[in-house]
Amino acid sequence: EVKCNFTKQNYYLIPADINKEVTILDLSYNQITLNITDTSILQMYYLLTELYLIENSIIILCNNSFGNLSNLRILNICRNSIHIIQQGAFTGLTKLQQLYLCQNKILQLNPDIFVPLKNLKLLNLQGNLISYFDVPQLFHLELIILHGNPWNCSCNLLNLQNWLNTSNVTLENENITMCSYPDILKYYSIKTVPYKAECYSKLPSPITEDLQINFQSISNSTFNSSLNNLTRNSEHGPLGKSWAFLVGVVMTVLVTSLLIFIAIKLPIWYNFLLSYKHHHLEEHEVETYEDGFTQNPSSLSQIPDTNSEDTTVIFEQLHSFVVDDDGFIEDKYIDTHELCEEN
């Protein structure tokens, strides 16, 4: 073992001139923030087995903060101000056995952040602000420390209680790991708090979960196949009946417009036809009509078996169509007595 102790040195950055063969590095009680520069320097100390960053100024644990420390077995980051732990913060720590995150400002933890920790045996989350914690996928975990957090012992914490009671994990300081909410459950341990039957009914059984997963997969496959068929039909098949509906609407509009147009224009045409019977003949039309008879006198002689009297009658009937020069048409309905009185 190669130990290096740099505690209380008021360091703001991890020094880069440390022995590259260091295995135990203690940087506690400094001002280190574990920023990008610090994480790049840490990559050089790939032989580290123990790293202590107690009481520094760390706020965020970024992705791959310890990516090259594959030999690390103990990581202690207690008494900082950590409130955000990114998804891949512990990537590469495949041999880590003890993780200390106590006395920080962690509000919630995604259980997936512990997935890379295949050999973790101890997890210390004491003294944070955690009120809810889902079951982590830590198959080799032996000891967990959770006291000092404001636990909300509603139905959501029932999974954690079942896990603590059925697994081989030991809850340290069980008697002081108490509920803070709701008030009626205060002073109960999170491992022994009594839950109502309604909380158990909200938990899906393994059979129900399998059925739900199978149903979801079947429904998703059915939906996808239906969507693919619809896409193929829309690309290669006919358009369906929507075009017929559109044509029907257009024809209805056209026919209705035509009927309205006819209803408006029909009285005008009717009046025009009535006025056609009272049209006056022009003077040149009368002359043309008379000339037609004078130029063809033979037409009268061609009438068989007619005497002079009949000819005179026909001639008088033909000349009855001639209009007088005054241009007026005699109206038989004018009362002659009234006309004399007016004169």
From TrEMBL:
Entry's transmembrane regions: 243-264
Membrane topology note: Single-pass type I membrane protein
Keyword Signal annotated: yes
Keyword Coiled coil among UniProt keywords: no
Signal peptide: none
One annotated GO molecular function: signaling receptor activity
Domain of life of the native organism: Eukaryota
Keywords, sorted A to Z: Glycoprotein, Leucine-rich repeat, Membrane, Repeat, Signal, Transmembrane, Transmembrane helix
Biological processes per GO annotation: host-mediated modulation of intestinal microbiota composition; positive regulation of canonical NF-kappaB signal transduction; positive regulation of non-canonical NF-kappaB signal transduction; regulation of cytokine production; regulation of inflammatory response; toll-like receptor signaling pathway
Start and end residues of each LRRCT domain: 149-200
Main subcellular location of this protein, as a coarse class: membrane
InterPro entries: Cys-rich_flank_reg_C (IPR000483), Leu-rich_rpt (IPR001611), Leu-rich_rpt_typical-subtyp (IPR003591), LRR_dom_sf (IPR032675)
An annotated GO cellular component: plasma membrane
A Pfam family reported for this protein in Swiss-Prot or TrEMBL: LRR19-TM
Subcellular localization: Membrane
Physiological role: Pathogen-recognition receptor which mediates the activation of TRAF2- and TRAF6 NF-kappa-B signaling pathways and induces the expression of pro-inflammatory cytokines. In kidney, prevents infection by uropathogenic bacteria by inducing the production of cytokines, chemokines and antimicrobial substances. In gut, involved in host-microbiota interactions, plays a critical role in promoting the recruitment of immune cells and intestinal inflammation.
Quaternary structure, from the entry: Interacts with TRAF2 and TRAF6.
Protein name (database record): Leucine-rich repeat-containing protein 19
Source organism of the structure: Myotis lucifugus
